[in-house]
From TrEMBL:
<dbReference type="Pfam" id="PF08245">
    <property type="entry name" value="Mur_ligase_M"/>
</dbReference>
<keyword id="KW-0131">Cell cycle</keyword>
<keyword id="KW-0963">Cytoplasm</keyword>
<dbReference type="GO" id="GO:0051301">
    <property type="term" value="P:cell division"/>
</dbReference>
<comment type="pathway">
    <text>Cell wall biogenesis; peptidoglycan biosynthesis.</text>
</comment>
<keyword id="KW-0573">Peptidoglycan synthesis</keyword>
<keyword id="KW-0436">Ligase</keyword>
<comment type="similarity">
    <text>Belongs to the MurCDEF family. MurE subfamily.</text>
</comment>
<feature type="binding site">
    <location>
        <begin position="104"/>
        <end position="110"/>
    </location>
    <ligand>
        <name>ATP</name>
    </ligand>
</feature>
<feature type="binding site">
    <location>
        <position position="459"/>
    </location>
    <ligand>
        <name>meso-2,6-diaminopimelate</name>
    </ligand>
</feature>
<feature type="binding site">
    <location>
        <begin position="152"/>
        <end position="153"/>
    </location>
    <ligand>
        <name>UDP-N-acetyl-alpha-D-muramoyl-L-alanyl-D-glutamate</name>
    </ligand>
</feature>
<feature type="binding site">
    <location>
        <begin position="407"/>
        <end position="410"/>
    </location>
    <ligand>
        <name>meso-2,6-diaminopimelate</name>
    </ligand>
</feature>
<dbReference type="GO" id="GO:0005524">
    <property type="term" value="F:ATP binding"/>
</dbReference>
<dbReference type="GO" id="GO:0008360">
    <property type="term" value="P:regulation of cell shape"/>
</dbReference>
<dbReference type="InterPro" id="IPR005761">
    <property type="entry name" value="UDP-N-AcMur-Glu-dNH2Pim_ligase"/>
</dbReference>
<dbReference type="InterPro" id="IPR013221">
    <property type="entry name" value="Mur_ligase_cen"/>
</dbReference>
<dbReference type="InterPro" id="IPR036565">
    <property type="entry name" value="Mur-like_cat_sf"/>
</dbReference>
């Protein structure tokens, strides 16, 4: 269907051009497109407006001020990023009928993937969108990976295009990850959410947000602005930030469905580790359910309850949802068991890249360790520097052997990132080369020991000085266990 400027902005225009596409990237503009000229963190998109018009842009969307005499309509907005998201959604039109979102410092990818799997088991064509890309699931069909891993929350135009494509494919249920960057930059403002969830709030991304308050405000925006009144807010009641999120949700007119040990909607009564994962006893709507969860770790129990809460909020039967938990698969690279060492012991790969993530995964593995717990980890370059000593201290305290290595130094000097970690990690070893660090850890692995290679999970590259070198923790760990070249 032909879209005009008036359809995109819901108001009349004297020069109501037909719009052929919408983008915030001038490099994508062709004849008839709307170009959103947005000031960014590195450059100012307004500097590309003239070039976009030269390439045939039919209209420009921009913040107030500047950009006179371009010869095409300039649509002004006080919140141009939001206007871009809403215009993109209006341009693409369709969305799956049931869109739900999850935010939180850790656990978003896991929760989004669990929701997709539960919805699919209950007979819906379902998708997840996030760090692992876009995946579609349908009962009896192999999963479809539509896009590769990229941003956790893609650009607003890409989100709108992708969810329209999903709706066209017959996807009715979508769970998407709302990262704090994504919410702050209005990347999901165009999505009509029926429910939203919160996992937890701990330190990360202070390089971008500047303070914990600003970081929290970005996450709260999912509830105070993006989730409509009358919708359900599914909140992890065991998080210290629960009261803040609950009061924001209530003030915004949402009904709170709390989950966890302190939860009212889904209350975790007990959790018993088993060789295959853990047995959960959960109370819901006055009944008690026994669940054999095929995933280990208290944090996974927490994540599955958040996912189950979202599915219940989406209208699914609570008994069927809880039954579906028995067939869940963990997200790739999240507490993923890789194999046994040549002299015994077990090796895992995990995506812990925050202080709380590292603490959580080490605490999850401790009960499975009869000998030594060995951790290989680093911290990302061009990311929150405050995380480094915190992760060092946690690694040194909670692992028996901590090996500090590189994890995407990006534009920074790898040795100084390691030094910042090691400063707070007495007794930790330093092996910069990640392959050598994994090999050294595997050499130490004996019967009863557990090794976790943390920080990169599913990632396929090591970013050094802006260059991505192929690197896969799972493949590297497996090769080290088998004593072969990766
Ligand atoms: C810091 C940050 O979040 N940057 C994101 C942001 O870029 P920006 O708007 O600041 O970009 P900019 O380079 O200053 O450019 C400004 C504008 O000029 C435009 N431009 C630029 C050049 C040109 O030739 N023509 C042109 O039109 C750009 O398209 C942009 O609209 O908006 C872009 C489009 O949505 C994102 O791709 C970009 O993500 C960068 C690549 C990134 O690395 N982001 C990471 C930190 C991120 O977003 N991570 C989160 C959190 C993950 C987690 O939960 O841990 C995520 O959701 O993945
Ligand atoms: N509920 C949780 N509480 C604390 N730590 C968790 C929790 N869930 C996952 N983690 C840790 O965080 C890591 C990342 O998990 P996951 O990918 O699900 O989170 P995410 O929020 O999507 O991360 P990202 O911000 O990179 O998108 C896991 O490998 C694990 O170490
Ligand atoms: N979404 C997170 C992923 C971090 C993964 C870790 N391997 C790193 O590079 O720090 C970020 O961009 O901060
Ligand atoms: Mg994620």
């Amino acid at each position: 269907m032909t879209k005009r400027l008036s359809d995109l902005f819901n108001r009349p225009f004297a020069n109501d051009s037909v719009i052929a596409g919408v983008t915030a990237d001038s490099r994508k503009v062709t004849a008839g497109w709307l170009f959103a000229a947005l000031p960014g963190t590195k450059v100012d998109g307004r500097d590309f407006a003239e070039g976009a018009v030269a390439k045939g842009a039919a209209a420009i969307l921009a913040p107030e001020g500047g950009l006179e005499g371009l010869g095409v309509p300039v649509v002004r907005s006080e919140d141009a990023r939001r206007a871009y998201a809403l215009a993109s959604a209006a341009f693409w039109g369709k969305q799956p009928a049931m869109c739900v979102a999850v935010t939180g410092t850790n656990g978003k990818t896991s929760v989004a993937g669990f929701c997709r799997q539960i919805f699919a088991q209950l007979g819906h064509k379902a998708a997840s969108m996030g760090t692992l890309g876009v995946v579609v699931s349908e009962a009896g069909q192999p999963d479809q990976q539509l896009t590769p891993p990229g941003l956790t929350t893609p650009d607003a135009g890409d989100v709108a295009e992708m969810i329209a494509r999903l709706a066209d494919m017959g996807v009715t249920h979508l769970a998407l990850e709302a990262s704090s960057h994504g919410v702050d930059q209005r990347r999901v403002d165009g999505v009509k959410l029926k429910a939203a969830a919160f996992t937890n709030f701990t330190q990360d991304h202070l390089d971008y947000h500047g303070s914990m308050e600003a970081y929290r405000a970005a996450k709260l925006r999912l509830f105070d602005t993006l989730t409509p009144a009358g919708a359900t807010a599914v909140l992890n009641a065991d998080s210290e930030a629960f009261p803040t999120f609950a009061s924001t949700a209530v003030t915004s007119g949402q009904s709170v469905f709390s989950v966890g040990e302190d939860g009212q909607g889904l209350r975790l009564i007990s959790r018993t580790p088993t060789p295959a994962g853990q047995d959960l006893v959960v109370e819901a709507q006055g009944r008690t359910y026994d669940i054999r969860l095929p995933l280990a770790g208290a944090f996974q129990a927490s994540n599955v309850l958040v996912a189950a809460g979202l599915c219940v909020a989406a209208g699914e039967d609570v008994g069927k949802v809880l039954k579906a938990l028995e067939n869940l698969e963990g997200a790739a690279g999240r507490l993923q068991r890789v194999g046994r060492g040549p002299h015994g012991g077990e090796a895992y790969v995990d995506y812990a890249h925050t202080p709380d993530g590292l603490q959580t995964v080490l605490e999850a593995l401790r009960p499975h360790t009869r000998g030594k717990l060995i951790a290989v980890f680093g911290a990302g370059g061009d990311r929150d520097r405050g995380k480094r000593p915190l992760m060092g201290a946690i690694g040194a305290k909670l692992a028996d052997i901590a090996i500090v290595t590189d994890d995407n130094p990006r534009s920074e000097d790898p040795a100084s990132i390691r030094a910042a970690i090691l400063e707070a990690a007495p007794g930790a070893r330093e092996i910069g080369d990640r392959r050598a660090a994994i090999r050294a850890a595997v050499d130490l692995l004996a019967e009863g020991d557990v090794l976790v290679v943390a920080g990169k999970g599913h990632e396929q590259g090591q970013i050094v000085a802006g260059v991505v070198h192929p690197f896969d923790d799972v493949a590297e760990t497996l090769a080290a266990l088998e004593g072969v070249d990766a």
